[in-house]
What we know:
By secondary structure, this protein is an alpha+beta fold. It has 2 domains: 11-98, no CATH class; 111-221, 3-Layer(aba) Sandwich (Cytidine Deaminase, domain 2). The protein has 8 helices and 5 strands, in the order αααααββααβαββ. A 5-stranded mixed beta sheet has the order 2-1-3-4-5. The longest helix is centred in the C-terminal third of the chain and has 17 residues, at 188-204. The termini are far apart. The model is unreliable at 1-6 and 11-34 (pLDDT under 50).
Amino acid sequence: MPRVTRCRYCPAAKISTGHRPETPLTPPLFFDREVASTIPQSAIARQERMLREAIAPYLCLADLRKLAASGEDVQAALRENEAIPEEVQALISLLRVLLMPRSQECIGKPADIAAALMLEMGRKDQEEFVVVCLDTKNHVQRIHRLYRGTLNSSVVRVAEVFRVPIALNSAAIIVAHNHPSGVPQASQEDIEVTRLLVQGGATLQIEVLDHLIIGQGKWISMREQRLGW
């Protein structure tokens, strides 16, 4: 059995893995408030501890939190272990859902949405362009995939980008596209597309809050870099 190297910052590293609880993890992953209220807090705490113990040999929780918070590739939180169980790999895939902002969550900065988009788009082998529709409180209404293929000003039609936001009565949008090369560096075409969208949004009174470029394990905000604004 390969030796497991634990991160000293992981909460689970301080818990003995020799203990094997008598009851398995049985509650559903997602449950409503009524169901949650019937489960004793002690049982929830015990099951949370069991989950941390189970994944600690394969996944560094401290790294996971840091990577997710910074919008980087959460795959890097996996330990160097050739025998990563399928369940742990599935957990990483599930993070695409868990990192997606909830319907009532306010998008206050690019990183709030970038982590979720990176899990979805960061390793695509062709470019994709998505539109994140936001209401007046910056709650996510819909994430709409609009284009696949090379992004340029002749392909991206301003009217098409704003079609769904207009239908949803959106107050603002964030657009994003990925670079299959893995390098999130803005091209002149990216800047031109952004400039057209910002101008179109001003005319339609739907603000373009940002244009994100997604790479492998990294991303950039074109607004923060003043590219197209």
